[in-house]
Structures are given as C-alpha cells and as structure tokens.
Amino acid sequence: MNCELISVGTEILLGDIVNTNSQYLSKRLADLGIGVLHQSTVGDNRERLLRAIDEAFRENELIILTGGLGPTPDDLTKEVCAEYFALPMYTDEAIADKIRGYFVKKGLEMPESNLKQALIPEGSITLQNNNGTAPGSIIEKDGKIAVILPGPPFEMKPMFEESVVPFLKKYSEHIILSHNVRTFGIGESAMSERVSHLLENANPSVAPYAKSGEALLRVTAKAHNEEEAEKLISPVLDEIKNLLGDSIYGIDVGSVEEATVKLLKEKGLTVAFAESCTGGYCAKRVTDIAGASDVIHCSVVSYSNDIKNKVLGVKKEHLDRYTAVSDIVAAEMAKGIKEMSGADFGVSVTGYAGPYYEGCTDEIGTIYIAVTDGEYVWLKKLSTGRTDREYNRYVSASNAVNEVRLCAAAYPEKRSEGMRLDEFISTY
Amino acid sequence: MNCELISVGTEILLGDIVNTNSQYLSKRLADLGIGVLHQSTVGDNRERLLRAIDEAFRENELIILTGGLGPTPDDLTKEVCAEYFALPMYTDEAIADKIRGYFVKKGLEMPESNLKQALIPEGSITLQNNNGTAPGSIIEKDGKIAVILPGPPFEMKPMFEESVVPFLKKYSEHIILSHNVRTFGIGESAMSERVSHLLENANPSVAPYAKSGEALLRVTAKAHNEEEAEKLISPVLDEIKNLLGDSIYGIDVGSVEEATVKLLKEKGLTVAFAESCTGGYCAKRVTDIAGASDVIHCSVVSYSNDIKNKVLGVKKEHLDRYTAVSDIVAAEMAKGIKEMSGADFGVSVTGYAGPYYEGCTDEIGTIYIAVTDGEYVWLKKLSTGRTDREYNRYVSASNAVNEVRLCAAAYPEKRSEGMRLDEFISTY
After folding, report:
1. Mean pLDDT across the stretch A98-104?
2. Cβ separation of B298 and A311 shorter than 8 Å?
3. H or E segment at B313?
4. With contact defined as beta carbons under 8 Å apart, do A167 and A124 qualify?
5. Pairing mode, strands A62-66 and A2-8
C-alpha cells in the first residue's frame, strides 16, 4: 500500500516553520511497510487543496493530511476532504461539549468559532485529541482512505500513534526492517564502488547515503516478520563488513562520537582534547552522549598561541617557526593535554577553519590532528578543500573523534604503528 | 512570479532527514517577493520526477529542484531536467578538471563515476559549487526556468545566495524587507503581550516567533524599493525597542553569541569559560563566530570534580559539602578560569543536564552560571523544568553567553551591582 503526505499550511510555504511532521510520518509509515512515494505541501487554499487531494488519490489509496484543523476561517482541511468525498458535515455534540469544557478548564471565554472544530464528515471515524481541541478524522470511501490530523507535532504524533497506527496495521501485510552501516573516512562514492554489486539487490536493498563528511549504507528487507527480515539481511551485512572493514564505525549507532564513547567505556579508556580551530566542538560532541563523564574528565580550548604555550607547553619557537597550524604543534598540544589531564589519550586539533585572514600560512581547510598515549603519537592531516567554517569545524571534530576510535580499537596492541612521541618532537 | 520547490531524494521520503531546504528557500523567495504555492518531494525515480516537473510547470514559471546531483546511479535530477527540456548533455572539461583536482587535494582516488557530475545540459547556466563537487544549473527555455541545486544545505545555501538570488532579482517586481528583533530571557507570550497592539499591523507586519529558549519579532514591509520599505519599518522598530529594552540582544543578528562577540570586540573585552554540564558548548558557540579569536583565548571543560579542583582551584571541601552543582562552586570555577586565562571575564556553567543518575543532588535542569571580572561576581540560577539533555545544555550555554553580554554591556559602570567575589566566597 502506498501513501501520500499532504501538509496544509501557508506558514510552511512562507518558510516560517520547518515541516517535521512529514519526516515523522514517513519514518513511521516505512516501519509499517507502507511506502511514501510523494510528499506535498499546500497553503490554506480551497482549490489548491482540493486539487492536491485529487492528484494524490490518482496514485495512492491512502493519503494523510496534517494541519488546517484550527478554528479560524482559513482552516479548511476537514471541509475540503468532506467536499472531495461528497459527504455532508454535522456537529458532534460530544466533541462540542469537550471543546467547551477545555475552555472552562483554562478559565477562558470560548470564541463561537471554535465549535467549527466539532463539525464532522458523515460516516467518518473521529480521532480523539488528548492534547488540543481539534479532533482528527479518518474517511474511508470507494477504496480510498483519507487520514486527517492536526498540524502541531505534539498533537499529531500521539494521535497518530494511538489511533492511526492500529487502524493502518490491518493494511500492511508485511514489515520493513532496516539496518544502517555507518562509515567514516571513505566517502560515498568510494564506499559505493566497493559494494557496487550489492546496490542492485532487491530484497534486502542496499542504498548509499552521504551526510557531512560521512557515508552510510542502509540495508532494508521487506518480510512477513522481523525474524524473516533479519535472516535476509544478515548475510548481506556480513559481506559489507568484509568489504568495508574498519571504515565501519558502527551499525545502527547514532554518530561517530556515540560509537567512540561506547568503545572507550568498554576498554576503560579516557580521553582529553586540546582544541584550537574546533573551539570546543570535540568536547561538546563527546559530552552530547549521556554518560560521557566516564571517558572525558577535561578538555582545553587553546585558541591563542599564548595559551598553547602557557597552558599546554607548546614551545614558543615551534609556534613562531612552524606556526600553530603544523604537525609539531599538534603533537605538542596533544602531549600537553595528555599530561595536564592524566587521560589515556591526549588529542589535539589545530587548523584553518576559515574564513581567510591576513596571516593564514596555509589553505583554509588544512587541519592537523594528533593523538598520543604519552609514548606514541598518531598524526593526521586533513585538506577538506572547502572554505565553509561550520563544515570545516564539524569535519575536523568528526575526524579527531574518529582517530580516537581507531587508536582505542587497536589499543594497546598496535601502539608501535605510531611514532615515538619524543623522537618525533626531537626531530624539530 | 510563482515558484514550486521540488525536493528530490528517497532519504526524505523514508524520513531519514528533515527537509530544511524547503523552509530556507521558501523564506528567501518570500523575501524576494516570489510566492511559493506548492512544495513537493519525490524519490530518486525517473518517471515520478519527470511527472513532478511537468505538473509544477503547469502552474509556475519557476521551479527550484534540490538534491539528486551526486555521483551515484540513483542521482538523476540533472538528466531528468535535460530530458524534460529535450536538451542534450555534454561533459564540461573545466568542471571535470575541478572535480579531479578536488580529489587530488584530498589525496583520494577519484572514482570514474564522479565525472557524471561534469555532465551539463546544453545551453544551461552552470552554478559554481565552492563547497562540493556537484555544480548547479539554471535552465531557461520557453518561458520556463528550472534551477537545479545540490541537496546538502552547506552546498545549497551558498550557491543559492551567490548565484541564484542575483539571477532571480530581475523577476521580482516588488521587494519584501524584514528585520528580526532578537530577544533573550523574556519568552514569546510575554514579548507578544508587550507589543500586542503592533501584531495587528498590515504593512509593516509584526509577527512573533519562538525558538529554543528565545523569542523574536519579525517586522516585514512590502514596498517598491528598499528605501521605501525601511521608511515603513523604522518607526515600528523604534517603538519595539522602547517596549522591550535590553531584552533585545540584537536586530538582524544571527544569535546571542554573535551579538556577544560583537559587543566584546567593540569594548575590547575578552572572555574564558569553565564548563561542566555544557561540556564545551559555550566555547563552541562563541568560536562558531568568525573572528572570535579576538575575544576568547581559552576555555576549560572541567567535567570531573578532580579537574575542577586541580585545574581551576575549586576547594575540595566545597565540592564535597555543596556538590559541583552549587553557586559557590560556580563562583570558584569562574574565579579559576579568570585567573588561568587572564581574560576580562571568567564564566562558569555547572548543573544537571540530564538524564537523572544516582547521586544527582538536585532536579535535572538546575544550572548555576557565574561571571566574574576578578573583583565582582554575577550569579544566575536556572531551573529549566525540563529533562531533555540537549535542550538543557543548549539553554545553559545560551544563558551563560547572554550573561556575558549583559555584564559587558554594563561594564565597567555597573560593576558594583554584582557581589564582591572574595566576600561571597568567604561566606562559605
């Protein structure tokens, strides 16, 4: 069964609000095995809404409309749906009383216009609204189903979960199950090429997605139940793991920082950051994860050279000769925060996030990252090729966190693959 | 002139991402006096995309498509548009070279598939992408205009502003000019009440908006030119300034951190943060602002009590007796970072962001903020009444930054309105 989502509201067309309802409903419908092939947004306008409903029903048996259930004259969704189905409307006294009661409870005068919300298309199912005055409706006629929900997410979501999901379950003869393989440092196109033969798969399907600096593969199976779906997915997941190796930082995990915090906890390791261009973004993202206090005790934002020298002990002559954006300064920052914090790993980020300013000694997007355990150091240089400050800061922080993940994963066995920290510093 | 927005991408139909592009474009088009009557989203599917374009052009001379410009086989937008306009495609060697260079710079192997992004519809205008490899296009034929933009917002937005806005200006016969009055600490309903008589205005219109912990008023005028619009707006702005006073942190400023950095620069003042529950969020947000290096030299994330004591000099007995979430510890953290950094203001944030854990000595959402210039201290206690970790961290950081703004604005005249730091500490 396929569904079209129609969002009703001029405020969306004006860009005053972000349409989060469509995302929520699309995701939940996918879980139910109902495909969404089209989403549309129309304003509070009778003709255009009527046309949108008509076009949607040409391709779908089910449409879900959100918004336009308010008490004001420009709230038209229920009336226009009733018109489309040629159903008269009547006042539901029980709902009218509920609305009156709602105002009494709030000690407010009820504008007569609010009773408009008690008008119901004949033969429709009324959906309780426990978070507002506007009830929803389901109209089922001639093999077409229109589900009408209020616009505010805090009214729409509970109504959908409590009333619509049970109603729709009888229409979904199968379920859809997805697993997301999250990768780092490989890029969408390279990732896609390595698994290209799998992208042709039908069930489970394998689809690549890019998101700022990362790439993920979604493996999706359609089956009669969860167990059957997992059976379909598991051999494909195994093959992907073999093909992508440790570019994969997790499956169904929210972010690289979440995967890294989890790994550090498992291994009983701790980390501290010395951040220049990221200005606290690494620490912020790691501490986004509840329970991060087990793995991060402190971090320092050393934005100025003076602080890099005074607080982290970066040699002044190195700052002068090689500038703050250099591998030696990154290594000394990492050493400094490791010693200051006593954490297992000291991590540093220093680079040019942009915009360009007098005195940049390298291209915007040039970033140095160092990780040290005190004895060994692992260095990474990024050239993002972009001038977007937010992008460069985000990707620098992602890479720093990912370097911690890679070091922790191989710790302590592969330490010797790093350089000896003091040897490296002494070469300068 | 009317425009339809078509978002292309199965990940939107699956609910994997929120469609923020439509909001951004709708808002910017409204500014240009171009109406958006319909938004739609289709998957990576040739037939459905072709049909969506055809339907859109029945009602609009202009359509803007976002997404589907990637290198993978399911990225179809440019091809399908060329097909709709019956235009052949050719490889633009300059773009191909740019793409090759992009990979060389990143030290990555370029998959051949990426050259697909250099395919250009004949006779189209190519739009530079300074933040990625996929160029955009404008196809203008038979009185129809298709603008094709990449999906990732950090690529789409700059391309729209740099290339599309100048192109569209010649099509908009009147302009819409808005000024946003940003307030902090007053709340949407209280703000709206104070200016309620203005909310009836037609031109300029005055509309209130709420956004996580803040409220703003948008004053919008429609006129033939900018000067005329400014004339309409300025008396209303003056009245709003009188009514809302220093709850206003800026007009047309992006954020409270931007306003604060600007003010600190003007006054030649510097700040350093000692962050516990915000874990670097204050420093991150201040350093989001280009040029923040003039006002912030360092910050410390002191997540553990041990670090609060060792690095910031918070008395161990105070941590033991009053816990880390107390006004005395906030004051000592601020003192410690002020002394360590040598900044004009030391600022601390300590509190319970959530979730609840064994050992919370106060409600989730209880946050203490302290600002000190070394001699005086200003304290603020928040009780957000919410348990949402991200919300509590965001609002704590916003309040800390706003406290800096208020102190800096009154500095040095109103110092004596604070308590003497050492007297305050000695009372414990």
Report:
1. 85
2. yes
3. none
4. no
5. parallel
Q: What CATH number corresponds to the domain at position B46?
A: 3.40.980.10
Mutate to test the interface with A, among B8, B11, B13 (most CBs of A within 10 A): B13
**Distance (Å) from the alpha carbon of A401 to chain B's nearest alpha carbon:** 15
Say if residue B140 is in the same domain as residue B16.
Answer: yes
CA A252 to chain centre: 12
Which one of B43, B287, B298 has the shortest CB-CB distance to A37? B43
- Interchain CB distance below 8 Å, B298 and A280: no
- What CATH number is given to the structural domain containing B270? 3.90.950.20
Task: For residue B37, give the nearest of A48, A298, A303 by CB distance.
Answer: A48
A420 and A278 share one domain: yes
Q: Are residues B393 and B265 in the same domain?
A: yes
Q: Which amino acid is at A262?
A: K
Q: Specify the pLDDT at position A160.
A: 95
- What sign has the CA pseudo-torsion A236, A237, A240, A245? negative
Question: Using CA of residue B369, residue B371, residue B372, residue B378, what is the dihedral sign?
Answer: negative
Question: What are A53-91's pLDDT values in tens digits?
Answer: 999 999 999 999 999 998 877 889 999 999 999 999 999
CATH number of the CATH domain containing B234: 3.30.70.2860
Does the distance separating the beta carbons of B298 and A298 come in below 8 Å? no
Whether B102 and B244 share a structural domain: no
Residue B15 is nearest to which of A30, A297, A300, comparing CB atoms? A30
Give the DSSP H or E segment for B99: helix B93-105
Chain B residues within an 8 Å CB radius of A181: none
Same domain, A194 and A228: yes
The C-alpha angle with vertex A160 and arms to A158 and A161, in degrees rounded to 5, equals 65
pLDDT of residue B396: 97
If asked whether residues A149 and A195 sit together in one domain, one would say no
Residue A399's nearest CA partner among A364, A421, A367 is A367
**What residues in B contact A293, CB-CB < 8 Å?**
303-304
What are the chain A neighbours of B20 within 8 Å (beta carbons)? Answer: 18
Residue of A nearest to B397 (CA): A284
- List of chain B residues whose C-beta atoms are within 8 Å of the C-beta of residue A27: 14-16
Strand partners, B369: B349, B380
B35 to chain A: which residues are within 8 Å by CB?
13
Which phi and psi (to 5°) does residue B311 adopt?
-85, -40
**Phi, psi values for residue B397, rounded to 5°:** -65, -40
Is pLDDT at B106 greater than 80 in this prediction? no
Please tell me the distance in Å from B279's CA to the nearest CA on chain A: 5
User: Closest residue of A to B153, CA-based?
Assistant: A212
Contact between residue A12 and residue A21 where contact means Cβ atoms under 8 Å apart: no
Alpha-carbon distance of B378 to B370, in angstroms, equals 6
Q: Are residues A140 and A238 in the same domain?
A: no
Mutate to test the interface with B, among A297, A350, A399 (most CBs of B within 10 A): A297
Which whole-number Å values give the CA distances from A89 to A54, A120, A123, A279, in the listed order?
20, 5, 9, 60
Contacts of A39 in chain B (CB under 8 A): 12-13, 40-41
Q: Find all residues with CB under 8 Å of A7, minimum gap 6, and list them.
A: A19, A21, A22, A39, A40, A41, A42, A65, A66, A67, A151
Q: Which of B123, B148, B169 is where one domain is finished?
A: B169
CB contact under 8 A, A37 and B355: no
Q: Could you tell me the pLDDT band of residue B388, with boundaries at 50, 70 and 90?
A: confident
Domain boundary among B251, B277, B295: B251
Number of domains in chain A: 3
Domain range enclosing A401? 256-426
**Chain A nearest CA to B416, separation (Å):** 30
B244 and B314 together in one domain: no
| ipTM given for this complex | 0.77
In chain A, residues with a C-beta closer than 8 Å to the C-beta of B389 are 288, 290
